[in-house]
Design goal:
By secondary structure, the protein is α/β, with parallel strands linked by helices. It folds into two domains: 2-190, Spore Coat Polysaccharide Biosynthesis Protein SpsA, Chain A (Alpha-Beta Complex), CATH 3.90.550.10; 196-272, no CATH class. Helix content is 39%, strand content 24%. The protein contains nine helices and eleven strands. The chain has helices at residues 13-23, 40-47, 64-77, 96-101, 147-153, 165-175, 212-228, 235-252, 256-269; strands at 2-8, 29-35, 53-58, 82-86, 91-92, 109-118, 132-134, 143-146, 179-190, 196-200, 203-207. The strands form two sheets. Strands 1, 2, 3, 4, 5, 6, 7, 8 and 9 form a nine-stranded mixed β-sheet that branches. It has a two-stranded antiparallel sheet with strand order 10-11. Helix 7 runs antiparallel to helix 8 and helix 7 (212-228) packs parallel to helix 9. The chain is globular. 32% of the residues are buried.
Length: 273
């Protein structure tokens, strides 16, 4: 049996409905975990009576890691061996699970994931790709996860709340000797924040326009992630990504001051995690 799970936080109902319509016929159970959304009553009105949908409602926002672990625990309780995790505004192909099922016999597979196409920027890379690529990290949305391996290596790190939660789990998957395989024939349409593309001296720069709160967690979790896996990660790459992040904020984004303050605060708070 196969399950899917979506973490909700003030979802756009139209996008969520599109998401659910695309996946519901492909799985035996769909778990919706709500992190104290203001519009949860609309979600419940639409889906509470569906026999294939389980709604878990949190009274407060406990973060993406906590909610993902709720999905995993529900899968364990109901004896589901594989679970597909989706963001609330993603939309998968109508044959995604069928595509994944062809590759479940790959030795030591921990996660199968799709090729991501951003809904805000529908331009794909032009070079050809093999059907299966072994990669080091993948995002939560579209990840097809082995539930038994989650239990063996430990669940998502709830200290992180949001941002890099998925990458941190990917590191532990590989440290334990398991593989992450991207199937390039499997497509997921995903929205990466309020993405915009700007031309900067002839070069196209993607700017995510995340909130100050997200900038805080990205900075804090980057250092925590590095310290937790310093035997595996490149210190240069982590610090380089942090520098690129704050540079884009300062050059291209609004609310520069509040985001800079959040970034610095996140770096400081990483020492207390």
């Amino acid at each position: 049996m196969i399950a899917a799970g979506i973490v909700l936080y003030n979802p756009d109902i139209n996008l969520l409905s599109e998401n659910i319509d695309a996946i519901i016929s492909q799985v035996d159970l769909l778990i919706l975990v709500d992190n104290a959304s203001s519009n949860i009553s609309l979600v419940k009105d639409l889906y509470n009576k569906s026999p294939k949908i389980l709604i878990i409602q949190n009274e407060t926002n406990k973060g993406i890691a906590y909610a993902l672990n709720q999905i995993l625990h529900a899968c364990e309780k109901n004896n589901y061996a594989w679970v597909l995790t989706l963001d609330q505004d993603s939309t998968c192909a109508n044959n995604l699970i069928e595509t994944y099922a062809k590759y479940l016999n790959i030795d030591n597979i921990g996660i199968l994931c799709p090729r991501i196409v951003d809904r805000n920027y529908l331009v794909e890379e032009s070079y050809s790709k093999p059907e299966v690529e072994y990669i080091k990290t993948c995002i939560t949305s579209g990840s097809f996860m082995n539930v038994k391996i989650c239990r063996e290596i430990g669940y998502y790190d709830e200290n992180m709340f949001i941002d890099l939660v998925d990458f941190e789990y990917c590191v532990r998957v590989q440290k334990a000797g398991f593989k992450i395989a991207r199937l390039n024939s499997a497509i997921l349409f995903h929205r990466l924040g309020e993405l915009k593309v700007v031309n900067f001296f002839g070069k196209k720069i993607r700017v995510t326009n995340h909130s100050a709160n997200r900038v805080y967690y990205y900075a804090r979790n980057s250092i925590y992630y590095l310290n937790k896996h310093k035997d595996y990660l490149s210190r240069y790459r982590v610090y380089s990504n942090l520098l690129k992040k704050i540079t884009k904020v300062l050059i291209f984004e609004k609310e520069k001051n509040s985001k800079l303050k959040s970034f610095i605060l996140g770096i400081k708070h990483s020492n207390y995690m």
